[in-house]
TrEMBL record:
Taxonomic lineage of the native organism: Bacteria, Pseudomonadati, Bacteroidota, Saprospiria, Saprospirales
Organism: Flavilitoribacter nigricans (strain ATCC 23147 / DSM 23189 / NBRC 102662 / NCIMB 1420 / SS-2) (Lewinella nigricans)
Every Histidine kinase domain range: 270-365
Keywords: Coiled coil, Membrane, Transmembrane, Transmembrane helix
SUPFAM superfamilies tied to this protein: ATPase domain of HSP90 chaperone/DNA topoisomerase II/histidine kinase
Name of the protein in question: Histidine kinase domain-containing protein
Listed InterPro entries: Bact_2-comp_sensor_kinase (IPR050640), HATPase_C_sf (IPR036890), HATPase_dom (IPR003594), His_kinase_dom (IPR005467), Sig_transdc_His_kin_internal (IPR010559)
């Protein structure tokens, strides 16, 4: 058996705990006898020796005990397993008490305190029926402690696995968003470039340059979930510049960027679905001019990001919008995945009064 695998704690820690318990129970015996005015019966060396041997032996047996606890658990197990566990506990308790008695008797014999003869062995055997119940209680206390440690370890491992899965899921959604962006956006942009080549080559070159920067951002980035807001805003500018050209400058964009937010790290591609939503639902179906506002602010230990349009709006509730809109629901789910309950996303809209999405995030450090 691999002892290190089943040792719940390093041996030195087990020995240290055993020595501390021996001192504690020796002090308890002293105080009890002092309270009853029976200190003449208190023998420091013997009392300390008995407790030290008792708890040291339990410390040395910890890997074996842990192995049996895992092999024959009491909870959620058939009665056969419970019976084996009970039989093992009694066997170990008898073994522990008999061995600890010998560990005390042999040095006592060597030092001449009392001989290790038949009478002494008979005394040890008779004492088993008195001492084994105490060892039995100690055995199941150790069982409870090791089981709690094992459950805590499993819970912590599950948490780590969950975090790993959540990160993988977040990366998968980010990659899906990248793939979703390319065919949806490229088709319209290439049509714009084709049209401009006939009437305004300089404008076509400008769109090609913007498109190149945008695709480089999408395709060349690693799988980080977070980037500086400065980079996210650069992507949004390229995106909106292309859309402004496509709509013959009927679309105006207003930026209100707090310089203090530039280096704050935010989820990668968190604003693109909101900007796309503003163009698709707030502007593309209108014949008149439209405006989109991109606002960022630093509020103490949080960053606020707002995407607002002056489009037609809607009378749907935020809950209905999240159910109906893939882009909005993806943003909401990503925020929940990355921030839990510490992120806020507020949707404000009314018919003919435009559409606004406000995201409030705790400030992330670059190593996130």
């Amino acid at each position: 058996m691999n002892w290190k695998k089943y040792a719940p704690i390093p041996y030195w820690q087990g020995i240290l705990v055993a020595l501390l318990l021996a001192c504690l129970f020796t002090l308890k015996s002293y105080l009890r006898l002092k309270y009853f005015n029976e200190l003449e019966y208190f023998k420091l060396g013997r009392t300390l020796g008995v407790h030290t041997v008792n708890y040291l032996l339990w410390a040395l047996l910890l890997p074996l005990l842990n192995y049996f606890f895992e092999r024959f658990p009491i909870h959620d197990s058939p009665w056969r397993t419970k019976g084996i566990a009970l039989a093992l506990s009694l066997t170990i308790c008898f073994f522990h008490e008999f061995t600890s008695s010998l560990m005390l008797a042999i040095p006592a014999n060597w030092l001449g305190y009392y001989p290790l003869g038949d009478d002494n062995m008979a005394y040890i055997i008779r004492g088993l029926r008195i001492a084994v119940p105490d060892r039995f209680l100690e055995y199941w206390i150790i069982y409870a402690i090791l089981t709690a440690m094992r459950m805590q370890r499993k819970f912590r491992n599950k948490e780590l696995e969950l975090v790993k899965v959540e990160n993988q899921l977040s990366s998968a959604r980010l990659n899906a968003l990248r793939l979703q962006l390319q065919p949806h956006f490229l088709f319209n942009t290439l049509n714009t470039i084709s049209s401009l080549m006939e009437i305004n080559v300089n404008a076509a070159q400008k769109v090609v340059s913007r498109l190149g920067g945008l695709l480089r951002f999408v395709l060349d980035k690693d799988e980080r979930n977070f980037i500086p807001l400065r980079e996210e805003l650069e992507f949004v500018r390229n995106y909106l510049d292309i859309e402004q050209t496509r709509f013959n400058d009927r679309l105006s964009v207003q930026y209100d960027i707090d310089d203090a937010t530039q280096e704050i790290w935010v989820p990668h591609l968190i604003l693109q679905p909101l900007v796309e939503n503003a163009i698709k639902h707030g502007f593309s179906n209108r014949s008149n001019d439209g405006k989109i506002e991109v606002i960022t602010r630093k509020l103490d230990d949080k960053v606020e990001m707002v995407i607002r349009d002056d489009g037609c709006g809607t009378d749907l509730s935020p809950e209905e919008l999240l159910r109906a809109g893939i882009g909005l629901s993806n943003v909401k789910k990503r925020l929940e995945l990355l921030y839990g309950e510490t992120a806020e996303m507020e949707i404000t809209t009314r018919p003919e009064e435009g559409f606004s999405v406000c995201i409030l995030l705790p400030i992330k450090r670059p190593e996130a």
